[in-house]
Amino acid sequence: MKLEQSFMDFMLHHQERHNRSYKFLALMEAIQAAAKYIQYFYQTGSLKNLMGEAGFTNVQGENVMKMDDIADSIVLHYLRRSNQVICAITEEEPDPVVLNEDGGRYFVYYDPLDGSSNIKHNLPVGFMFAIAKRNLDGPEDNHLRKGSELRAAGIYLIPNGVFTLALAETGVFRFHMDETMTYVIPENAERLIMPENPKGWELSFNSSNRRTFAPKVLEWIDEHEPKYAFRYMGALAADFHRLLSNGGMFMYPAIVNHPKPAKNRPKGKLRLLYEANVAAFIAREAGGMAIDEEGNEILDIEPEYVHQRTALYVGSKPLVENIREKLKG
Ligand code: AHM
Ligand code: MG
User: Fold this and answer.
1) What is the Cα–Cα distance from 158 to 113, expressed in whole angstroms?
2) Where does ligand 1 bind, in terms of residues with CB under 6 Å?
3) Does domain 5-185 fall into CATH 3.30.540.10?
4) Fold (CATH) for 202-328
5) Phi–psi pair at 57, nearest 5 degrees
6) In the chain, ranges of CATH 3.40.190.80 domains
7) Which residues, other chains included, contact 183 with Cβ-Cβ below 8 Å and sequence gap of 6+?
8) What ranges make up the beta strands (E) of the chain?
9) Angle at CA of residue 176, ends 174 and 178, nearest 5°
10) Is 271 helix (H, G, I), strand (E, B) or coil?
């Protein structure tokens, strides 16, 4: 009989090795409990009529799905119970949700169910999160942290049962759900590094938007597209998941040439705090990088407001650097 190392065991050893507090473990346990509940609701949702629209829109004007709403309530419940979180910023709530202002140690940014258009097909979605820590000395006054200050970020791919976790200055690790719904790390699994060999690289973007991109982005695509396989699932969590193992680049460029100008998105579609930063942080810990439309590193962007959007180019460093030259040229 072969038994693998559980996620909690992995984390306990990590915290001990680095002489770190158990508060982070309490937070990770809460996040993982939430992920398992979301997994359960997602797997059984079609049988309970839970995969449709909720009948209202969020602060960003998007139709909320019942599952978005359920997943958000689950995450908030476990974050609150953990007593470790000062406040949470979620895609589904207009303002930061204050949880434990006095005793909390962390800020959590999350998208409870990324890839909403996949829900009604039971296709992969992701619970994406990022964690920053309060100032331990002096008063805490800033919940809008830039990505370079994050301590961890992760993606639970649902219902696939794979969890990717990036820890600051440590690396990226993947855990798989076993028969007992325990996340385990396969024996001898090493930290995940994006492959350097361009042979297996992939490109991922919404190709039907291409005529709306800036001319230089389109030029870059025309030149480079033939070299790589094209993959797009329509959920950053899922598209980025495979890109991390295969290498290449995911992009959601600014929409600047839409035939209906009102539909332009000069800042792209994805949200900085709980989508772009999560992918960028994981990419950095796996040897990759991420930039915006101006070529700035995503992790260096100072957030100005909660649901701020950004264009995103994330993936293997040489490819992202290559498009950066084009964007800056
Ligand atoms: P969501 O958080 O409401 O699901 O929206 C974000 C999603 C990303 O997962 C995905 O990369 C993108 O939107 C897909 O957008 P599009 O349908 O324009 O290709
Ligand atoms: Mg999302």
Assistant:
1) 9
2) 62, 91, 111, 114-117, 206, 234-236, 252, 269
3) yes
4) D-Maltodextrin-Binding Protein; domain 2 (3.40.190)
5) -110, 160
6) 202-328
7) 6, 7, 32, 161, 163, 175, 176, 177
8) 5-6, 53-57, 63-65, 85-90, 97-98, 106-114, 125-133, 152-158, 162-167, 171-177, 183-185, 202-204, 229-230, 248-252, 289-291, 312-315
9) 160
10) strand
Q: Are 85 and 110 in contact (CB under 8 A)?
A: no
Whole-number Å distance between alpha carbons of 148 and 16: 24
246-284 pLDDT, tens digit per residue, is 999 999 999 999 999 999 999 999 999 999 999 999 999
Structure confidence by residue, pLDDT tens digits, 175-213 = 999 999 999 998 888 899 999 999 999 999 999 999 999
Counting from 1 in the atom list of ligand 1, the atom nearest the Cα of 238 is 9
For residue 62, give the ligand 1 atom closest to its CA.
3
